[in-house]
Design goal:
CATH topology: Rhopdopsin 7-helix transmembrane proteins
CATH architecture: Up-down Bundle
Function: Putative odorant or sperm cell receptor.
Helix content: over 70%
Membrane topology: Multi-pass membrane protein
Number of helices: 10
Family: Belongs to the G-protein coupled receptor 1 family.
Number of domains: 1
CATH class: Mainly Alpha
Number of strands: 0
Oligomer: single chain
Radius of gyration: 21 Å
Keywords: Cell membrane, G-protein coupled receptor, Membrane, Olfaction, Receptor, Sensory transduction, Transducer, Transmembrane, Transmembrane helix
Protein name: Olfactory receptor
Order of helices and strands: HHHHHHHHHH
Shape: globular
Length: 284
Amino acid sequence: MYLVTVLGNFLIVLLIRLDSRLHTPMYFFLTNLSLVDVSYATSIVPQMLAHFLAEHKAIPFVSCAAQLFFSLGLGGIEFVLLAVMAYDRYVAVCDPLRYSVIMHGGLCTRLAITSWVSGSLNSLMQTIITFQLPMCANKYIDHISCELLAVVRLACVDTSSNEIAIMVSSIVLLMTPFCLVLLSYIQIISTILKIQSREGRKKAFHTCASHLTVVVLCYGMTIFTYIQPRSSPSILQEKLISVFYAILMPVLNPMIYSIRNKEVKGAWQKLLGQLSELTSKLAT
C-alpha cells in the first residue's frame, strides 16, 4: 500500500505537469496535496514496516523527534490546504465569471505557502516543547509511531501546559479550517440549489464532488475521534486514526480524484493514447 501511495500520487503530479488543461488553481493545490500525502506516509510507514520486521523495536531520540515534527507538520498542512481548496471551489461555483481574476497565480502561491508555513511552525513549536519534557526511564511508546500524545505520556512531570498547547493548536489547525470549509460548502450548496437547470446543478456538483469526498474522509474521522464527551480519545483510537492517515488516506486521495474527476480521466486517456502511439511507432 505504501508503494501504491508513492506511485499513485507521483503519477497525479506528473499528469498535472504534462497536461496543460490541468494547469489551473484546483490542480495546483491538488499537486500540493499529493506531495503532502507522499511525505506524510514516508514519515511514518517505512519506520513502522522496519519495526514489524525487527524483534527489538527501538528508535533513536533524534529520529523520534524528526518523525514527530514531519508527521505533525504535514498533517496540519493538509487540513489548511483542504480549507484553501474549499475556497477555490467556492469561487469556482459562486463567482465563476471572476474566477480567473480572483484565483490568480500570485494568490494561489501565497495560499499554498501559508498552508506549508502554518503547519510547519505549529509542528516546530509542539516538537520543541514536547522534547523538553523530562522523560521517564524504561518506558516505551505505546503507538505505531512517535505520535504527539504518545510521546507526551512518557513525561515524568505534569503535562497540563502541553495539553493546553495541543488543544489550542487543534482549534487553530483543525477546527478553524473545518469551519471555513463548512462555510464555503454552505455557500456552494446554496448557489447550486438556485441553478434552474438540472444539468447545470449536476455540473456544479461534480466540480466539488472529489474535494468534498476527501474533506469528509479527512476531517470526519479526526473530529469523530477527538471531539467527544470525555476528555481524551483512547490509545486504540489514536492508533487507528494514525493508521488511517498514514496508510489509507494517501492511497485514497489519488483514486478519488482520478475516478470522480472528468478532467483527470480525460488527461489519463490522452496520456495513455500518446504512449500507445509511441509504442506502435517504436514497434514498426
